[in-house]
Amino acid sequence: MSLPTSPSRAAGFTLVEVLVALAITAITLGAGLKAAGALTDNAQRLGDVTAAHWCADNALTALRLGKQFPGTGEAEFACNQLGRDLRGVLRTQATPNPNFRRVDSVVMDGAGLVLASLSTVVGRY
Fold first, then answer.
1. pLDDT of 5 higher than 80
2. Angstrom distance (rounded) from CA 84 to CA 47
3. Domain with 115 in it: what CATH number?
4. How much is the pLDDT for 35?
5. Residue 6 above 60 pLDDT?
6. Does the residue 3 lie in any domain?
7. Does the residue 58 lie in any domain?
8. What is the SS3 assignment for 86?
9. What is the Cα–Cα distance from 10 to 104, expressed in whole angstroms?
10. In a 3-state reduction of DSSP, which class is residue 125?
């Protein structure tokens, strides 16, 4: 004698299971978009800092190639690198040895945020 079997259930997912899967997918995609946005911001920042470093280095190199012993004080300069317009300041300070000057090249973006700062010592020629 066989026992009666219960009617078979249709195969598939319930509505709750589908909604949970959709919620997990949405959270994962949201985290992926946030990470991609952070990478884009970091790449932009790296480009800005690289361009600023080149500007600061160019300003110090031009000072050395001029073969003039710099006076103390500040001088502004403008620079365009990688399509970015940057501005900078050369700050020249006296040192304990009067034959040398310390020169700091500070490059800023349009908002005044310092992107790069380089220093060197220039000797009397």
1. no
2. 10
3. 3.30.1300.30
4. 85
5. no
6. no
7. yes
8. strand
9. 77
10. coil
